[in-house]
Amino acid sequence: MNSLSFEEIKCLLNPKHSMVALNGQITGVSIDSRKIKTGDLFIAIESGKTSGANYAKDAINRGASLVISERDLDILPLFVVEDSIVALNELAGYYRNKFNLHVIGVTGSTGKTTVKDMLYLLLSAKFRVVKNEGNLNNLLGLPLSIFDIDNNTEYAILEMGMNHLGEIAKLAKIAKPDIGLITNIAPCHMEYFNDIKEVLIAKLELYKNIPVGGLFVLNEYDTELKNIEKRNDLKHITVGNNCDYHIDNINELLESITFNMNNVKFDIPLIGRFNAFNACLSIALSNYLGVELSIASQVLKNYKSSNGRMNIIRTTDSVFLIDDTYNANPDAFGNVIEYIDRNFKKNKYAVIGDMLELGKLSGYYHRKLGEDLKKAHFNKIFYSGDFIESVKEGAKGIYIKPVEDNDMDYLREEANEGDVILFKASRGIGIEIWLNRFLQR
What we know:
- The chain is α/β, with parallel strands linked by helices.
- The chain has helices spanning 6-13, 56-61, 84-96, 112-123, 141-146, 167-175, 196-208, 223-226, 275-288, 293-299, 330-343, 362-375, 388-394, 405-414, 432-439, and strands at 4-5, 17-19, 25-26, 28-30, 40-43, 66-69, 78-80, 102-107, 129-131, 155-159, 179-182, 215-219, 235-239, 247-252, 257-261, 264-268, 311-314, 320-323, 348-353, 380-384, 399-402, 420-424.
- The chain folds into 3 domains: 4-87, Udp-n-acetylmuramoylalanyl-d-glutamate--2,6- Diaminopimelate Ligase, Chain: A, domain 1 (3-Layer(aba) Sandwich); 99-302, Mur-like, catalytic domain (UDP-N-acetylmuramoyl-L-alanine:D-glutamate ligase, 3-Layer(aba) Sandwich); 311-439, Mur ligase, C-terminal domain (Protein-Tyrosine Phosphatase, Chain A), CATH 3.90.190.
- Strand 19, helix 12 and strand 20 form a beta-alpha-beta unit.
């Protein structure tokens, strides 16, 4: 991060109270006092669950040069503002405007992080690139990621998440992407949307906020995206059948995928046939921006999935664990179950849990989950969450029970060479707890 002076922060935010000499500066931004480095600005977020103001003294003690808070505090230096989240967003937008660089906005129902991480790996072969780490993709995380930009940055790749209409538009206002990519449209966060068309409208807020003359990657493999009304003031890169970029000869192996893209072969250590389409989007954009397909093919041989996203773990007993614990929605569950069905012929177990934020469709999608598990011939299901009865209804005949502490001991004894155990649920369920217990021998 390039430094910002106290004076320009004051001019931007116009705080209610200012208890600080204006000759100081910040060299970083944090909302977590435990991560403060010397010279950082600490923004005390009021989230409703906890007050960041309670940790302001700790931030100062760890080296923070300035605190922004909604509360008057007995610390110096301090700016008091009306809304700490608005202050963070305004400061991030101001900081982003200091740089003449390309910002790539990435959103979609599934595959956002995979596409972001692949793009980062590909573009880093030729350019100086930053990205938002992990799940820093909301109105707190994305602004914090913007402060990773400095004078050397040529591309910033920013994943944008949402669960309500208007959120992508707010993120785009802060980040000002001139390049956009939507991975796909699928049922997720349906508690807050009436139908899939509203999900499409929410995701297209990114498309609508690309400035005139900008660039958009259009995934025509996705039915909803293929039929959107195209803007005539943007350059479009199309991916799909009879498009600028297309894939064929997809071969799904146990621990990798291979395919041809515009007659160049790719072999990526990533599981699941569906991930070939995520890779295609990343490769297409990086190629348009100057990374040759032959170079991309070599670079992606070194791709490594993020934690909790379709990672495959082989135990010393040659039992396969699928760590897809990061999150879950109907499409993502269907993809991993189909992968398991195609690639594993011995016993199949699942330690899984609810898909959250599906609203009135929760019962339907959990019954369908049960049906998919039955169709894929899963042997036993250990379940965490409120919708176990719906899953049972769909998976009639399969052994299903609420997961308990001793079930991991049972699975360690029960599973044999070549068997597979799936671990997956929505983030709020915390299914990774059970994976960790399984691994603790």
